[in-house]
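Fold sample X.
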Amino acid sequence: MKKEENIIVGISIGDLNGIGPEVVLKTFQDARMLEFCTPVIFASAKTVSFYKNHLNLDVNFNGINQLNQIVSGKINVFNAWNENVKIEFGVENPKKGEFAIKSLEAATKALKNDNIDVLVTAPINKHNIQSKDFNFPGHTDYLAKELQGDSLMFMVTETLRVGLLTDHVPVKDVSKHISKKLIVNKINTVYNSLQKDFKIGKPKIAVLGINPHTGDNGVIGKEDDNVMRPTLKQIKDSGKLVFGPYAADSFFGSDNYQKFDAIIASYHDQGLIPFKTLSFGKGVNFTAGLNKIRTSPDHGTAYEIAGKGIADESSFKEAVFMALKLFKNRLEYDELHKNPLKVPQKKI
């Protein structure tokens, strides 16, 4: 961590046939954004020029080949490739997946080397990125390998935060993945992130059950009684304000979620359906638990509207603002805890 001003935001461009490039350029078409940060888009000047002209966007950028050429207060485009790329809006194409990975890998390398301060990722297509050299379900899993720490998918807004015990796991395998060790690790990751990244001193966390009605005393599955409840009791007995398991079907509808600093869902759709319903367009995907900040918008490639100029950049802009906020919060936390005051020893 370094400075608090002039934060350099690295941006991976995502699937070139989707809406990623559009929402990125629309975000920084607003010149006021450059007062908050310096963006570096990992793509190519040729590709970005194509989108600028096609979408008739009023943006100027600084093309660079080396990261020491970044100009503060300007939109910078790092040339992660030099080829001419044929854009086919709305088409799933493995070749575009290769460019998405080139962008992500270059941005991640810059993040690891402290050439950029935070990373914001535009949407990828999880199918067309797969290859013998890149075999990850998505950004989170790749970054967990490349960066330090224990990663957790944390969907956040200013007032709602939803973490996941399991993320890109088939529903049929969810209960196999949920163990005492996993529950403890994920709750600790959320707890630490709430303190370090969100400045919440004593976090209050709710955990949703695995089965409908949290198993109904074993009638609809035994995992909640055998694994979830005893583990949560042990964590709560250690001093953390952790509650549950709660029945997921009524938890959000009753506004119960508003009583907690974070909610941890057992699996992907259990947490993301209510999250996106309550916050779509304002939600941000934050990879908590790592030594670097990474955020992304809460939507996908949206092939159906790609190239039409109608994509809403709100969620991507929120992802940028959230990355800046988290970076500053973490910087402040590290400063406060770097040199704790020593209590003088009494002489006997």
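Fold sample Y, listed below.
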Amino acid sequence: MRPTSRYRAAARMIAVIGVVSLVAACSGNGGTTGAGATGGGEAGGYPDQNITVVVPFSAGGPTDTVTRMIADPMAAKLGTKIVVQNVEGAGGTVGAGEVARAKPDGYTVLMHHIGMSTAPALYKDLGYKPLESFEMVGLVTEVPMTIVARKDFPPATLQDLVTYVKANANKVTLANAGIGAASHLCGLLFQTAAGVKLQEVPYEGTGPALTDLVGGQVDFMCDQTTNTSGQISAGEVKAYAVTTPERVKSLPDLPTTTEAGLPKLQVSVWHALYVPAGTPQEVVQKLSEALKVALADQKVIDQMAKLGTAPVPAEDATPQAHRAKLQEQLGTWSKVIADAGVKVS
């Protein structure tokens, strides 16, 4: 099956609008992220205007959901307004690239996930370097992945799923939210762990992929609990396992991949905040402190719990912990992707 044309068209339109809006904002015409009185080299009275947090994925997706959870409490701590802007395209690299090139004044922030650590192995010409083009603000959360299928898909358990896809590899469809997306990476790990190569169906975002799964137009996929918990609880999809060492509190009956017989499939999707390289350290620290306040907010904790995740400890919501995590993950995923033989350009 192929993603429906209406989803492709809608996603392209959103991406174009997002990029145009962000470029206008960064040039000072948009009113949300342009150069302010503080300038790019000093913290001054930061913040004295709205802050834009760019999400390089579709609205309503897991990363967008996490961003909107923490936006209000961060804004309250900073004493300003935070505008969330979706700039889609190329597995998150379009939005990340826009932020890397933005003025380093703290008014343009990036929320990215594990894809920041996989992009260098997937894309030949990124236009930015994760460790050099950004200042790290702090980690936000690590979200478990779930393996889910259309509700009438024949396999009953994860072991049944492995047996079934091996026997039907030429006709089973594995959906994902696009090359380099978390669902794509988890799908690669599934195929490696199961010892099978499947027909992958890339979409332009998690929303349309999951919609088609619920509608029975594709067979199964791997996606974050922030995006699947509602459908699992409502019985709209068939769930096989969660890809973390421990069960998720919001989905207590869902076994881990280890319990379900596929221990090599272990992955969680970490999210973090970035600003352009050269942003004053005083600004980075203000953003990091606001992040810590947001992650300690009981409403945020409760919202994340409902979606099968939790805020990172305060010591991980720091530039230092964030940089260490990114360095480690860059090494890990470069090998996984090379072994899988995946390359975008």
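Sample Y note: Residues 1-41 have pLDDT under 50 and may be disordered.
Also: The first helix runs from residue 5 to 26.
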